[in-house]
């Protein structure tokens, strides 16, 4: 597995280099315009995660992990969850949980609807970081299974009989 | 209406093929066809938010299933059939469909929803929240507490996946705790 | 009525796959099918005949919008449920990969036999 080049062929890499930016831009657009048009934090976050997954599939995991590491994803996930909770608790200033405390503004404007765009951004970050991280975990583990000779850390080393002792 | 029914029949056929296929790769591809058909149905039913989400989530489900499992083992040939489970589930088929038919007669007719709560949302949603997408105003303003709970469920599911998948977190009893917790670079 | 029946048939198909099939991936497929049918049923209940999407467009008449829009509440519930479904599927696939590493197969009966 070491003599093979990282990632897929040159065609996939060239197309991916062109397309990934646009996919990410589309995801960010979907997140930001969620209160005006179809979309919002949930689909936009999944689209951003898809862009990173395309990066990982086409360029190999080392490049992807250098650009957007797993620890970063984990931290971003926690930060986004905390910020969504913070938006909820800031509503307590005005009276109750998840109060829309910012001025509503004029409808059909980008900066309107109070806390809804902020919550959209938080949800989008959370979903994208979550899904990217779980894909990193799944893909790396599948790779280790497919090539057991890699670094000697394969499933062949771990016997089914004694692996019960490893767990506490 | 005809388009809707034919799409639903397409979805059911795709599900049957996915269930009965011998190879896991064709199973996964058939479930992809089911999901994309479902997104077109959502679009026809006046739910563009759901259509976008369904398409993207379906792509991610396909990637996860193929990358995670199908590369390991492709065949799903069963050595013998469990007739007991088949008979029980066929009996359940009939009972479920009968009771579902009786319950559907009590529902409001298709195409005429009740909308007691939703009328309020539609009437005052734009003035009270400022968002012109009423679905988003329900998710993040009227029922934001639900969304917080669902975000927690997502967090818990992903956390469970990490705990199941990670390799470095397992140590013997006397071993010192040196590895970092989370998703390490190599598993 | 026939639309509801087709939707519940999809649910029953998923349940059959969950009960009768031995392969774990097939069981996951059954769960996915059931989840789709439940989402579809919730959206179908909120559909209004010749309805429009619950998104107010610029310069649209408010009274006409209220009279013609479909029910937004089930859509709001389903939108989060789809993404949650993705998370639970990832969890199930993770458990399947662990089982494959331990037993070398996806077959439920083989796993049970090796255990005993």
Provide keyphrases for this structure.
heterotrimer, A: about 170 residues, mainly alpha, 6 helices, about 60% helix, disordered C terminus, B: about 190 residues, 2 domains, 7 helices, about 70% helix, about 0% strand, extended
Ordered list of secondary-structure elements with their pairings:
The complex is a heterotrimer of chains A (168), B (187) and C (116).
Chain A: H1 10-32, H2 41-59, H3 61-67, H4 70-90, H5 116-146, H6 163-166
Chain B: H1 2-20, H2 24-44, H3 48-70, H4 83-106, H5 116-129, H6 134-142, H7 144-165
Chain C: H1 2-20, H2 24-45, H3 62-68, H4 72-103, H5 108-115
Helix pairs in contact in C: 1-2, 2-4
Structural domain tally of chain B: 2
The total of beta strands of chain B comes to 0
Structural shape of chain C? elongated
Q: Which sheet architecture does the biggest sheet of chain B show? A: none
Weakly predicted, low-confidence segments of chain B: 183-187
Written as H for each helix and E for each strand, in order along the chain, the element string of chain B is HHHHHHH
Task: Bin the helical content of chain B.
Answer: over 70%
Residues in β-strands, percent of chain B: under 5%
What is the total tally of β strands of chain C?
Answer: 0
Give an account of the 3D structure.
By secondary structure, chain A is mostly helical. Chain A has one domain (10-148). In chain A, 62% of the residues lie in helices and 0% in strands. Chain A has helices spanning 10-32, 41-59, 61-67, 70-90, 116-146, 163-166. The model of chain A is unreliable at 147-168 (pLDDT under 50). Chain B has two domains: 1-77, no CATH class; 114-168, no CATH class. Chain B has seven helices and no strands. In chain B, helix 1 runs antiparallel to helix 2 (24-44), helix 2 runs antiparallel to helix 3 and helix 5 crosses helix 6 (134-142). Helix content of chain C is 76%, strand content 0%. The chains are: A mainly alpha (168), B mainly alpha (187), C mainly alpha (116). Chains in contact: A-B, A-C, B-C.
What is the structure about, briefly put?
Chain B is an all-alpha fold and 187 residues long. Helices cover 71% and strands 0% of the residues of chain B.
